[in-house]
Write a structure and sequence with these properties.
mainly alpha, 3 helices
Length: about 100
């Protein structure tokens, strides 16, 4: 049971990291007019990624101002998520596995 919980936490954090990266890349593609919102699939994908990542990025966007027109809040969030994942794996994963099996 403990191994499954550790795997689930790691998978969720990894999935969030990939969604933040995809959202950032998609926003760059919109900004440089490589793709547009008229494509229904792209619009739905952008809406989904924005709905997932915006609540996570909002606190950082309130604190960190854009630097030269570039939003670095995704970078800060990625660093914190990686830090949290490593901290979880190094400190809580082994006790959780030994406690729950």
């Amino acid at each position: 049971m403990g191994t499954a919980i550790v795997w689930l936490v790691d998978a969720i954090v990894t999935l969030l990291i990939w969604m933040i990266i995809a959202s950032a890349i998609l926003s760059w593609l919109f900004a440089f007019d490589v793709i547009n919102h008229r494509n229904r699939f792209v619009n739905q994908l952008a809406s989904f990624l924005d709905a997932v990542t915006a609540p996570l990025l909002a606190p950082f966007r309130r604190v960190i101002p854009p630097l030269g027109g570039m939003d670095i809040s995704p970078i800060v969030l990625l660093l914190l998520l990686n830090f949290a994942r490593i901290l979880f794996m190094q400190t809580l994963a082994l006790p959780l596995i030994t406690l729950l099996g």
